[in-house]
Amino acid sequence: MEQTKIYSGSRTSLYLDITPEQWPVVYRPEYNVRFLGLEKIHPFDAGKWGNIFKLLKTAGLVDESRIAVPNEATKEDLLVVHTKKYLKSLNCSFNVAAIAEVPPLCLVPNYLVQRGYLRPMRYQTGGSILAGKLALERGWAINVGGGFHHCSGSKGGGFCVYADITLLIHFVFNHHPRTVQNVMIVDLDAHQGNGYQRDFKDNPNVYIIDVYNKGIYPFDGRAKDYINRKVELRHFTEDGEYLDEVAKNFDEALREFSPQLIVYNAGTDILKGDPLGCLSVSPQGIIERDELVFRKARAHNIPIVMLTSGGYLKKTARIIATSIVNLHEMGLIRGPPPRY
User: Fold this and answer.
1) Pairing relation of β-strands 229-233 and 261-265?
2) Closest Cα partner for 271 from 233, 309, 319?
3) Buried-most residue among 118, 188, 208, 272 (CB within 10 A)?
4) CA atoms within 13 A on the CB side of 177
5) How far is CA 64 from CA 37, 58, 116, 238, 316, in A?
6) Torsion (CA) 186, 189, 192, 195 in degrees, nearest 10
7) With contact defined as beta carbons under 8 Å apart, do 254 and 300 qualify?
8) What's the longest Cα–Cα distance across the chain?
9) Closest CA to 159 of 264, 79, 70, 43
């Protein structure tokens, strides 16, 4: 159901309404990166998002008619956070290649880079923004993509080209000022979320808890200063210690801050064997982590929006889908009856 809405003097086609028969699960096939085979050079599974959806469909949880289909974020939408200079820099393939960490992209005409890589990222960004709205309406939402936590309003990096987390939160603040004054970011990706941390530095209305491996990218010491609750892990941290740290620090965060929305960056690069995360959490540990976060959010009646973020092994798609099905079986997410 496509429409345009105006809030606080701004116009966007991203804030769509969905029917009672649709789940607040956000996805469209254009999320997936297909770029003349060059996507295979990067360790990221460029078809992860489509694989998650296929598995959820096979499980009978959703199908094409029962998901929320987002629009592409426009230049005007992106300018809510991004500088004109940064967006203009993406017209240079060399700059995009550096962000995507795929050097051969610098030799590709930019119109192909826009179509094959940047456009899917704009759709995922639109999906994150829509998921923020739907979470407030339904109590929860999941964007099958997004979670580009290394990108700030003025700089991309680490495969993250648009600041979807910052944008999601700014859209919520701008469009729901009476409903949402405080937002908590719970970042459980293996990497420090330095992008939005720089964007929200010293912002008392955004509380950041970040649990990450201190021995890997991005080593952004300045951004660390803006984390409210910082949990730095060592290489090869396993389930027991990891889940204890998440539970303890999330509880402390909820005692210190009262959000009206939780943005949950649910990276699966914590998985044992992930070449970039360098942690040792099991598939069951990831499922328990997601259940833990949703259970605490729901117990406090706080709307939660989940972004899938990093995860660099082919098997992460199945783990994410299994985790979402588990959330439904545990009664932590609800929607139309599943078709088993």
Assistant:
1) unpaired
2) 319
3) 188
4) 3
5) 27, 12, 23, 37, 22
6) -70
7) yes
8) 51
9) 43
Tokens representing 318 are 């199945």
- Distance between the two ends of the chain, CA-based, in angstroms? 26
Evaluate whether 95 touches 108 at the Cβ level (below 8 Å): no
Whether this prediction's pTM lies above 0.85 is answered by yes
Three-state helix/strand/coil letters over 304-329: EEEECCCCCCCCHHHHHHHHHHHHHH
Number of neighbours of residue 230 by Cβ within 10 angstroms: 17
State the pLDDT confidence band at 325, using cuts at 50, 70 and 90.
very high
The two beta strands, 206-213 and 229-233, are parallel
Residues in the chain: 340
**What residues act catalytically?**
150
C-alpha neighbours within 13 Å on the C-beta side of residue 307: 31
Nearby residues of 284 by Cβ (< 8 Å), 6 or more positions away: 239
3-state secondary structure 39-84: HHHCCCCCCHHHHHHHHHHHCCCCCHHHCECCCCCCHHHHCCCCCH
Assess whether pLDDT exceeds 50 at residue 340. no
The region of weakest confidence among 45-49, 95-99, 312-316, 331-335 is 45-49
Cα–Cα distance measured from residue 291 to residue 280, given in angstroms and rounded to the nearest whole number? 19
Tell me the two tokens of residue 219. 């080593």
Query: Using 50, 70 and 90 to split pLDDT, how confident is the model at 36?
Result: low
Report in angstroms the alpha-carbon separations of 50 from 16, 98, 102: 21, 25, 21
What's the one-letter identity of residue 71?
N
